[in-house]
Specification:
Blueprint lengths: L27 E8 L5 H18 L4 E9 L5 E8 L5 H10 L1 H8 L11 H4 L6 E7 L36 E8 L5 H18 L4 E9 L5 E8 L5 H9 L1 H8 L20 E7 L5
Antiparallel strand pairs: 1-3, 1-4, 2-3, 2-8, 4-6, 5-7, 5-8, 6-7
């Protein structure tokens, strides 16, 4: 739970918050998406929560994983955010998958005794499990590059005090905004997103925190913004700030294209979209 009573991903783990990696203090995020079979959705969620609770305890300090449901989107599509300091640590997750007896028991146990038997392989729609790697956008952080971090963590992109920042662990909802920057305007697009997120963070401390990331080992110049909200109801405040006169004057109305032109020329048409995520909470 967050301090104001909204349910967050912290409810998914027994670890203390200071032992967790999240979108603010990690060096990279693996965003995993999977689609549950409708008839096995409850079992799939229960399996996911049990697995990530074990993984977070077994991999404390190496990786922290949280589960989210897609809301206002596709029914029974799940999202996992796996937070790590650096990609070479991924080998420790592989080692656990291959050799950890408790992990194998959780993943291979028969969870469908009344539905013909089976485990996670029957719960998820074939071909729906996909991964994207997102790294905090470098070049805008005021922090020095720590040796154990792939890039400086996103927490240093904003002047919001760290103890009031929202992140993937303590947020009540997350908006994942994605857009493809045009190659010739890649730097201007990154600057626009940074200016936009900075304005939002300055306007809504304690209610919203936005961090920007770039896709790595994937599509060139695909950019992501995680907008962490205190709760779903606070998305209205983001929309109000987005439409506000000050935001337009300081961010949107700035000419960013050489020779003249605004932010709308920086991205491939139709590429900007939002996905709204809420931390999954197992029914009591």
């Amino acid at each position: 739970m967050t301090s104001h009573g909204t349910t967050s991903a912290l409810s998914q783990t027994s670890l203390a918050p200071e032992r967790l990696l999240h979108s603010g203090n990690s060096g990279l995020i693996i965003h995993r998406v999977g689609m549950l079979e409708y008839g096995m959705a409850r079992e799939g969620r229960d399996f996911s929560v049990e697995l990530i609770d074990y993984m977070n305890r077994a991999q404390a300090g190496v990786a922290s994983t949280f589960l989210y449901e897609e809301v206002l989107g596709v029914r029974d599509r799940l999202h996992w955010l796996v937070h790590m300091k650096s990609p070479e640590l991924y080998s420790r997750l592989i080692e656990m998958v291959d050799h950890d007896a408790d992990f194998q028991d959780i993943s291979q146990r028969d969870r469908l005794p009344k539905k013909g038997g089976g485990n996670w392989e029957k719960m998820f729609l074939y071909g729906s499990l996909q991964e994207t790697i997102m790294c905090p956008q470098h070049g805008f952080s005021q922090a020095e590059h720590a040796d154990d971090m792939f890039v400086p963590p996103a927490t240093y992109q904003t002047t919001q005090p760290q103890d009031t920042q929202l992140n993937s662990a303590n947020a009540g909802a997350i908006v994942l905004r994605t857009g493809d920057a045009k190659y010739e305007y890649r730097e201007q697009a990154r600057r626009f997103l940074y200016d936009w997120s900075s304005h939002l963070n300055d306007a809504l401390p304690g209610r919203a925190t936005a961090f920007i990331y770039e896709q790595t080992w994937g599509r060139q110049d695909r950019l992501h913004c995680l907008i962490h909200l205190r709760g779903l109801e606070d998305y209205r405040l983001v929309q109000d700030a987005d439409r506000g006169e000050t935001m337009h004057k300081q961010v949107y109305d700035v000419e960013r294209v050489p020779g003249g032109g605004g932010w709308d020329q920086l991205f491939a048409p139709g590429s900007i979209h939002d996905v709204v995520l809420a931390p999954y909470v197992r029914p009591s």
